[in-house]
Recover the amino acids of this structure.
């Protein structure tokens, strides 16, 4: 990974750069978990003024929790601040290859077994309905 180039992409306006900006931010978080992005100012500087989307405000209020993390035998996935929808959970390996899928869950917390997972770093994506996706890093140790 070329960190300076990835960081430059992560700092772009997400309304202009799209999914690449969020992917870059995910990879930057491996090196600096405390990085903050001022999307409103950056987008405005690029001439992009976006009306407030209630879903974007909602995304800031929902927190994805993985317990324990790092995990050895099982993981509990929970969303703090939201529980009234259908959820799908996707587990990706560090190369962004889909490893596991749990579709159309009606309630959280959800617990799954990690005994068949190799030790390493994974990406957990929780999709709420078809409207909002939240990501979190999961470390598995045995």
């Amino acid at each position: 990974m070329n960190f300076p180039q990835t960081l430059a992409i992560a700092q772009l306006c997400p309304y202009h750069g799209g999914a690449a900006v969020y992917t870059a931010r995910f990879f930057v978080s491996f090196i600096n978990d405390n990085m903050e992005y001022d999307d409103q100012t950056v987008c405005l500087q690029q001439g992009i003024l976006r009306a407030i989307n209630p879903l974007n405000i909602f995304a800031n209020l929902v927190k994805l929790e993985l317990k324990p993390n790092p995990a050895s035998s099982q993981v509990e996935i929970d969303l703090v601040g939201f529980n009234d929808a259908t959820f799908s959970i996707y587990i990706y390996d560090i190369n962004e290859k889909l490893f596991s899928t749990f579709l159309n869950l009606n309630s959280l917390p959800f617990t799954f077994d990690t005994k068949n997972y190799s030790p390493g770093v994974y990406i957990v994506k929780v999709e709420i309905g078809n409207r909002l996706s939240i990501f979190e890093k999961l470390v598995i140790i045995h």
Q: What stands out?
A: The beta strands are 63-67, 74-80, 87-93, 98-105, 110-113, 120-128, 132-140. The mean pLDDT is 81. The radius of gyration is 16 Å. The CA atoms of residues 51 and 118 lie 43 Å apart.
